[in-house]
Amino acid sequence: MIAASPDRTDALSTDDVVLVTGSTSGIGREIANNVAAAGATVLVHGRDREAGRATVDALPGDDHAFYRADFADLSAVRDLAAAVRDDVDALHGLVNNAGTWQRERRLVSVPGCEDGVETTFAVNHLAPFLLTHLLCDRLRAGGDAGGDEGDPARVVAVSSEVHMRADLTLSGARGPDGPAGMAAYAQSKLANVMFTYGLARRLPDGVVANACHPGATPATALAREASPLMTLGWRLFGLVGKVVDVTDSTAEAAATPTYLVGSRAAADANGQYFEDCERSRSAEASHDRSAQRDLWERSSEWVALSEDERERLAA
């Protein structure tokens, strides 16, 4: 994996504002640091206020801010979007990085599904799906602010290569019966890629959307809900992986998301999947447009988009 460098943030300036979800630790915090080092203002998101304040204080530059929201609660996602809309008129970038991995199947309540939705799917897919809808006008304004240089606003989905192991079954995302653990995580990451492809076709001129695999990074807290045995195995994988060069540091894993949100070289990419800052081929299942439309429609129902909110990103 390659680390972030200045040419991967050469599209960012002091006029730009970038929201990075899940940015109080791990890959998200590294992305936030890269963006701030380029001079842009970072909107830091997380669940822990103390960690959020510490992150903001550690970022280079001024005017960064922390926003608290638990992505397992879609009403909190709406509150986050409302707060961002109150504070900024334009967004250069939205990095949908926040995610979870759950050892056991748990359900969360969502407004449009009385059976409940599996937590990993809700946090990793439904929350960014809703947030992107609610902030699309701020992204449009960010793209317009690119002016003659034509630099678009960017939406980046931090997915994972494990999406290639999944077949998306929407019925398995709702109710008590269905996948958990790695199977549920893989489904959510496939949904990230499929959402990105559908989003790219719906975004207004001046806004682009791309997905990426950041790398294998045992150093993150993603699997904090794993069993003790799996946690031990993940740590051992990290130690051995460093020796044989098959795992990535959080700084290395942040390079591709940073490139997509901040590089002029990525300005013409839209509806693409990246790995190591290069275009790559995502799973064949992710290219099924009928499945993409089904995912979009079901997600719209589950997060209870209003007619006005649906129209913001209508096909």
> Separation of termini?
36 Å
Indicate the structural class: alpha/beta
- Supply the CATH class: Alpha Beta
Tell me roughly what share of residues is in helical segments. 40-55%
**Could you say what the CATH topology is called?**
Rossmann fold
Percentage of residues in DSSP E strands? 15-25%
CATH architecture: 3-Layer(aba) Sandwich
Low-confidence stretches: 236-241
Order of helices and strands: EHEHEHEEEHEHEHHHEEHH
Number of alpha- plus pi-helical segments: 10
Can you identify the CATH superfamily? NAD(P)-binding Rossmann-like Domain
Strand order of the largest sheet: 3-2-1-4-7-8-9-10
Which of globular, elongated, flat, extended, rod-shaped describes the shape? globular
> How many distinct domains?
1
- Mean pLDDT across residues: 90
Topology record:
Elements: E1 17-20, H1 26-37, E2 41-46, H2 49-58, E3 65-68, H3 74-87, E4 93-96, E5 107-110, E6 113-118, H4 119-144, E7 153-158, H5 181-202, E8 207-213, H6 228-244, H7 250-253, H8 255-262, E9 272-275, E10 278-280, H9 289-302, H10 307-312
Parallel strand pairs: 1-2, 1-4, 2-3, 4-7, 7-8, 8-9
Antiparallel strand pairs: 5-6, 9-10
Helix pairs in contact: 3-4, 4-5, 5-9
Short description:
By secondary structure, the protein is α/β, with parallel strands linked by helices.
Verbal overview:
The structure is a single chain. The protein has 315 residues and is α/β, with parallel strands linked by helices. It has a single domain, classed as NAD(P)-binding Rossmann-like Domain (Rossmann fold). The protein is built from ten helices and ten strands. It has helices at residues 26-37, 49-58, 74-87, 119-144, 181-202, 228-244, 250-253, 255-262, 289-302, 307-312, and strands spanning 17-20, 41-46, 65-68, 93-96, 107-110, 113-118, 153-158, 207-213, 272-275, 278-280. It has an eight-stranded mixed sheet with strand order 3-2-1-4-7-8-9-10, sandwiched between helices. A two-stranded antiparallel sheet has the order 5-6. Strand 7, helix 5 (181-202) and strand 8 form a beta-alpha-beta unit. Helix 3 runs parallel beside helix 4 and helix 4 packs parallel to helix 5 (181-202). It starts with 16 loop residues before the first strand and ends with a helix. 50% of the residues are buried. Residues 236-241 have low confidence and may be disordered.
